[in-house]
Automatic annotation (TrEMBL):
Gene source species: Gordonia aichiensis NBRC 108223
Keywords for this protein: Coiled coil, Fatty acid biosynthesis, Fatty acid metabolism, Iron, Lipid biosynthesis, Lipid metabolism, Metal-binding, Oxidoreductase
Membrane in keyword set: no
Assembly, per entry: Homodimer.
Name of the protein described by the UniProt record: Acyl-[acyl-carrier-protein] desaturase DesA
Family: Belongs to the fatty acid desaturase type 2 family.
Coiled-coil intervals: 296-323
Length: 332
């Protein structure tokens, strides 16, 4: 798959700089739309500060599991979502390296980064003040996760034209921002706390606006270089990983999150992948050349495979729920 990416994009005669320049009007329009729609908010307004108290280093009491009011599912989701937000330097680096720091592109890179920073700030303050999770473990895991970083772009086989990595980066965040919105929104509900729910509704609203920016930039790229954009979209969808995939204990937490209905494969397909693809009219477009058609067919095949996996997942979940129900009835 990746061996076709580099030569295919290079053959267009357009460079990555050319593409950024051609997409600048789209970027300017999207920045203007975003600034009209976004609402400024302050993290301190979403934290129940009266619940806070000192830890042992300042004469108080250190964290104990009994202090947390969160379920195991809510803990796993909050930790995973927060550590995902914490890794902002990695995401900023990818966006900054593949966009431009000039003109509207540069403004967006800075504005997006500043808005994203609020998310980790408010979530950490909430968890530490309410003692929802172990703050020592949280900090140790943050250090490990940020040190390793995260790169969403597909592996390079030595043939890819990196001047066009922008297409892969912007395609990735189109899906990832929506995925994060879904995860935050469902995590808020799982916490059983109206303050956490309200906080994560606010974070999810930001993620939705960010998704709109990136999704609309990809739409512009599809009009300019449809085959090359289709190539990037297929590569990202078929290799997609959540940005927390490299954090410690991610697999364990992901299982809890999926079992808890916060984010699972069916949601990924029905609430993230398919809505974005429909918005881009991927399977209705008639402007693809042979290369784009090939990648569209590969995408269709991959989606069929995903549907099969979703069906297996849902059957397995039904069986698990039935077993739990039987155990519950037996225990009663």
């Amino acid at each position: 798959m990746t061996s076709l990416i580099g030569p295919a994009i290079s053959d267009t005669g357009m460079t990555g700089s050319d593409l950024l320049r051609e997409l600048l009007p789209v970027c300017e329009t999207e920045v203007e739309r975003h600034m009209k729609m976004t609402k400024d908010w302050h993290p301190h307004d979403y934290v129940p500060w009266d619940d806070g108290r000192n830890f042992a280093a300042l004469g108080g009491v250190d964290w104990d599991p009994e202090q947390s009011q969160l379920s195991d599912v809510a803990k796993a989701a909050m930790i995973t979502n927060l550590l995902t937000e914490d890794n902002l330097p990695s995401y900023h680096r990818v966006i900054a390296e593949n966009f431009s720091l000039d003109d509207a592109w540069g403004f967006w890179v800075g504005r997006w980064t500043a808005e994203e920073m609020r998310h980790s700030t408010v979530m950490r303050d909430y968890l530490v003040v309410t003692r929802g999770v172990d703050p020592v473990e949280l900090e140790e895991t943050r250090m490990a996760h940020m040190t390793s970083g995260f790169n969403p772009l597909p592996e390079d086989d030595g043939q890819r034209d990196h001047s066009f990595d922008m297409l892969f980066a912007v395609s990735y965040v189109s899906f990832q921002e929506l995925a994060t919105r879904v995860s935050h929104r469902n995590t808020g509900k799982a916490c059983g706390d109206p303050i956490a729910d309200r906080m994560l509704q606010r974070v999810a609203a930001d993620e939705n606006l960010h998704m709109l920016f990136y999704r609309n930039v990809v739409a512009g790229a599809l009009d300019l270089v449809p085959d090359q954009a289709m190539c990037a979209i297929y590569s990202i969808v078929s290799n997609f990983q959540m940005p927390g995939a490299t954090m410690p204990n991610f697999r364990r937490n992901a299982v809890l999150i999926a079992k808890g209905g916060i984010y699972d494969l069916p949601q990924h397909l029905s609430e993230v992948v398919m809505p974005v693809l429909r918005k881009w009219r991927i399977f209705e477009r008639d402007d693809f050349g042979p290369l784009g058609e090939m990648y569209r067919e590969k995408l269709a095949d991959y989606l069929e495979e995903m549907n099969v996996k979703v069906e297996k997942f849902e059957r397995a979940r039904e069986r698990a729920l039935e077993r739990e129900a039987k155990k519950s009835r037996a225990g009663a």
